[in-house]
Amino acid sequence: MKKSRYNMVIAGATGAVGQEFLTVLEKRNFPVGDLRLLASSRSVGKKMKFRGMDYPVYELKSDSFHGVDIALFSAGGNRSKEFAPHAVKAGAVVVDNSSAYRMDPEVPLVVPEINPEDIKKHKGILANPNCTTIIALMAVWPIHRLSPVKRMVVATYQAVSGAGAKALEELEVQAGEFLEGRELTKNVFRHQIAFNLFSHDSDIGPEGYSQEEMKVVKETRKILHDDSILVSPTCVRVPIFRAHAEAIHLELARSVSVQEATEALDAMPGVKVVDDRAGNYFPMPIEVSGKDEVYVGRIRKDLGMANGLNLFVCGDQLLKGAALNAVQIAEKLIASS
User: Fold this and answer.
1) What is the CATH number of domain 6-129+322-335?
2) Which residues have a catalytic role annotated?
3) Which end of the chain is more exposed for a tag (fewer CB within 10 A), N or C?
């Protein structure tokens, strides 16, 4: 597959992540040859800019992948299941941002800084993990290498961007309506999101955990190749535009000092330590929005466990949580070909 340029498709190009794909590909100077933008029939005829040129949006169809090398998908799970096999049959490698293939044992689930070796095992499809899992594991992985994680308790504070472009618009519209005393528009979320927060809006399963929470459990084990890790998540939707925050509590196999953990995090590619105790200055969603790095702070020993360590993490949901991670997978793919 080694080439100087790679013909690419973006499926779901007009969505929030699809737009970020274009930004990331341009920023990282990815060797794009021909580029084809695909979306639903409602978006046909729209034009999107890439490297100063206008590209038309075409309808996503089963015959959209002739001559394509790499297909970046962010069109939703159902569309990935329907169209990704057609892309693979046409000779493309799919990097899928939906949940459709994440837990498929035949599909690698990859965070390039953590398990890049899994990319070589692909059979045409590579899965991008859930944004919440990616952002958490960027901070957990360097500590896991110091001492294996036995248990992770995580509370997430998740931006509306995870629910798509219309959710971003709903937060902005509702904020104005609320401040003006008008009735709130609710098209995406069942609850008010402006000046409010609520348990993550995915369905609750019989065990009492939401789909989002179970993604964190299952994906963590798959990425780290360790089914023994106990994961207890609570996922919350908050009125933030595009950056997730997470409070992470780790129980380790052995005690790890704050200094050890800080040095390991400092050395981790894609992580920035923001941990100023004197100034009470730690990671904030507003400061990590638009940034590639995951910020980590509040690094401290757990007061209730001898081998416990606590962290506070922030990462841009649309970048490292989605588009950036997918493009990094594609970069590793072509580098290893």
Assistant:
1) 3.40.50.720
2) 131, 244
3) N
